[in-house]
Design a protein that fits this description.
Rossmann fold, alpha/beta, single chain, 10 helices
């Protein structure tokens, strides 16, 4: 027995979780910093992916860089990422997983802090538009992960009472924990299993197909 309400919603992160976009984002940020003669190692940028651009600049380059160049760097990142958008591919098993969520009678919402035009592209890429009950963009929350605002906004958008959060980064699990929701993670973000568990993930999977298999056997019904 559990004292929690049952899961009625699955809340998906998008970048790195449903689409294989993390390395394009890391390279776009690297190039944006270089425009301002700033060299931030790509591995440092990669480990910050999953938090929003409003936090990433200060996290990897310091408060002074954020104060001097933050908005310009975010604009430059968008310009650098745009030509790479056609290179982004869906992760294997994404469509089957999303449809499985709906077959189980659960609400499905995508909690993205990405730009609206990127989210639109990824909705089409994953066929999520036809099955999702709702989604968010950077316009829908003032604070990004690991703050829980985006996850709570996504949950509220579809009328969910209790959600299971699925993400690829430590920031997703930390945001879920702050929202007092369970989280599972997949290894597609490049974080290790131990890091994801330390951040609060109750289970870590190698692929979306593995998530779907556990979902269909009811493994998350009482988390």
């Amino acid at each position: 027995m559990t004292s929690h309400e049952p899961i009625d919603t699955v809340v998906f992160d998008v970048d790195g979780t449903l689409v294989d976009s993390n390395y394009q984002h890391a390279l776009a940020w690297f190039r944006a910093f270089r425009r301002y003669d700033l060299t931030v190692q790509i591995w440092q940028i990669h480990r910050a992916l999953g938090m929003g651009g409003d936090l990433l600049v200060a996290h990897v380059a310091g408060d002074e860089v954020e104060e001097r160049h933050g908005d310009a760097l975010r604009a430059a990142w968008g310009e650098e990422f745009e030509p790479m958008l056609p290179e982004v591919a869906p992760l294997a098993g994404v469509t089957d997983l999303l449809r499985s969520v709906k077959r189980r009678g659960l609400r499905l919402v995508l909690a993205s802090s990405g730009k609206a035009e990127h989210v639109d592209a990824f909705l089409d890429l994953t066929d999520a538009r036809s099955v999702a009950d709702g989604w968010t963009t950077s316009d829908d929350a003032e604070k990004s992960k690991p703050d829980p605002e985006l996850i709570q906004t996504a949950l509220d958008r579809v009328g969910g009472r209790r959600g299971l959060v699925v993400g690829d980064a430590t920031w997703d699990s930390r945001a879920a924990g702050r929202a007092e929701l369970p989280a599972v993670a997949i290894l597609s973000g490049g974080f290790s299993e131990s890091e994801l568990r330390d951040a609060g993930a109750i289970e870590v999977f190698h692929s979306l197909d593995d998530v779907r298999a556990d979902l269909e056997r009811g493994a998350f019904d009482a988390v």
